[in-house]
């Protein structure tokens, strides 16, 4: 299939022609050789086209459980364009592979884009939940917790990133999380207060029941 994939990559990369959405299904479940070919060709595709392709892949993945664009999306976490990186994070929303923890943490800590860092924080939330359900090892959760707390406590981090990190850590029943949520709830910034309420609901902690009900009334 390598030759046909090469033809496909040339076709979808041609900005003079209309992008065929149906052809993108061929990027699902690629072999190692096909993945290497894709990785070689992808950077040469125009940025606007890459954004268009990755967004279509994300929408297709949301609509169908039969496709697997994991190899494409993981590679695109390192794309030079922030919109592509952000879409790749979104597209991996249901991939629970702990191998994704390190690249997501790297994006949270080092990416120059606020929206990408915020997206990475949100994406890491599933590993907090998986830890609560005893679905991942303690050492994996420790890495996630450290990265989220680092973002929450950083005086230099953007508000939106800190908010998403608080919402992510809210799944945890560990000591200290209540205090983080409480501080967000009483923050002077309205958006942070909204995240505080969201975090209360996400935590499923009976301690917050009356307050959450009060906010809903």
Automatic annotation (TrEMBL):
Signal peptide feature range: none
InterPro entries (alphabetical): ARM-like, ARM-type_fold
Protein name: HEAT repeat domain-containing protein
């Amino acid at each position: 299939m390598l030759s046909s994939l090469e033809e496909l990559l040339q076709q979808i990369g041609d900005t003079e022609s209309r992008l065929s959405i149906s052809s993108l299904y061929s990027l699902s479940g690629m072999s190692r050789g096909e993945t290497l070919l894709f990785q070689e060709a992808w950077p040469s595709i125009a940025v606007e086209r890459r954004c268009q392709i990755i967004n279509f892949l994300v929408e297709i993945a949301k609509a169908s459980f039969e496709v697997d664009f994991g190899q494409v999306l993981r590679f695109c976490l390192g794309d030079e364009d922030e919109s592509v990186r952000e879409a790749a994070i979104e597209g991996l929303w249901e991939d629970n592979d702990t191998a994704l923890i390190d690249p997501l943490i790297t994006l949270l800590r080092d990416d120059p884009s606020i929206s990408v860092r915020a997206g990475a924080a949100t994406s890491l939330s599933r590993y907090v939940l998986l830890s609560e359900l005893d679905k991942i090892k303690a050492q994996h959760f420790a890495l996630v917790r450290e990265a989220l707390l680092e973002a929450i406590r950083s005086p230099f981090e953007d508000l939106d990133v800190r908010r998403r990190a608080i919402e992510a850590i809210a799944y945890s029943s560990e000591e200290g999380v209540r205090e983080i949520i409480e501080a967000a709830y009483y923050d002077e910034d309205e958006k942070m207060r909204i995240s505080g309420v969201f975090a209360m609901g996400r935590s499923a902690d009976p301690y917050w029941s009356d307050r959450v009900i009060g906010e809903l009334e």
